Amino acid sequence: MVALRDRLTVPVLALGGSLMAVMQVVVVPLLPELPRLTGASAGAVSWMVTATLLTGAVLNPVLGRAGDMYGKKKVLLIALGMMTVGSLMCALTSDIRILIAARALQGAAAAVVPLSISLLRDELPPERTGSAVALMSSTVGIGAALGLPIAAIVVEYASWHVMFWGTTVIGALGTMLAWWAVRESPVREPGRFDMTGALGLALGLSLLLLGVSQGGQWGWTSPRILGLFVGSVCVLGLWWAQQLRAERPLVDLKLATSPRVALPHVAALLTGFAFYANSLVTAQLVQAPKATGYGLGLSIVATGLVLLPGGVTMLLLSSVSARLSAARGARVTLAIGTLVIAVGYGIRIIDSHSLVVIMLGSTVCATGTTFAYSALPTLILRAVPAGQTASANGVNVLMRTVGQAVSSAAVAAILVHHTSLLGGVPIPTLHGYLLAFAMAGTVAVVACAAALVIPADPTVRDTRRASSSSEEPRDEAFEGA
Asked: How high is the pLDDT of residue 469?
């Protein structure tokens, strides 16, 4: 029985990560119909996405720090439980206020991936850690790619409440499996929880992400948006000063600003931006009416199937990315991954009319994301003490989330400014979509540059040099982090 539990640890944690990603996208097929189904305005309905984004971003580093201090498995079960309760609330009501609150609860699941990665580092032998962490990091893309078509099919052929009943059952199963199969890590970071730091970070991030997510609707130069951004800068500035003075800070800023940690965080921000534009722009482009001259007029279900190969690719290549990191270093894997993302966008710019080429470009972007996302937690794990792995990876995932939010706002801004009228309705032009691809590809190239200047891990480098002293010299550029 013990051996069975040990073998199931990685699959169970991967299931939890995939469920988290599914919860993030599960309402996307519903958004056009939710105003009618709930009797709420389109603006109110949009908060079903915004609430999850905000709470996920805020709770990621907070729950990560709590896991380091009080037990990673314990906090993981709390996050999975909150996600499941939120799903149950969605299944039981059509009241938009309760639905938004439920979606906010589900945002806690964003901490599942960094907590799981930290557990894997603490519990698995070194030879298994690389592939397990790569798989865990890839579940973000796998769950999103698989969840969208499944949710669309359920919504189209059954009641939308059925979808949430299904996610409730799966969430409860995942929580029970995690309780049974996952061991609690003995690694702890003792001390008093920094509640002041947690509240300050929560307020500052909420103001920032609220401004980013609502800027398109409220107007980027409106007093509300400008006030949110100014407030965010002020609050985060005060939070930064408080963290530097705190005896046991929520985020160790001295560690977080060291090049070996700060540069992977920057790369995570840029990679999150580049990754999110792929699914966001592809979904809109293939659903555009055929009358535009470029759109394919696909249904939501068909759109999900277009993105499905990318998710399958991420699942299949996660072990390959781990082997590449072991052979060449996570820094090189990250650089290759971001460069492949840029190549995928290059394919999209060359041809965005053919469905085959669209799927090819999207899958290439997903391939690059697999390599990049698998390398990021490995870089963090090698750069921070064992007692801070969950909180440090929580910050890294937070940077991905911020990158995705900024990407969504930037893509929306480009498409809004490049439209043409079709039947009296403004529709984004193909030129607007190509500009969005070019922007995301450029960001991916910048992420590649950031990866290449990450300092190498001297311990790993020296070990490799010692083990390969009898071999031909290896180019210094390929020494890993």
From this structure: 43
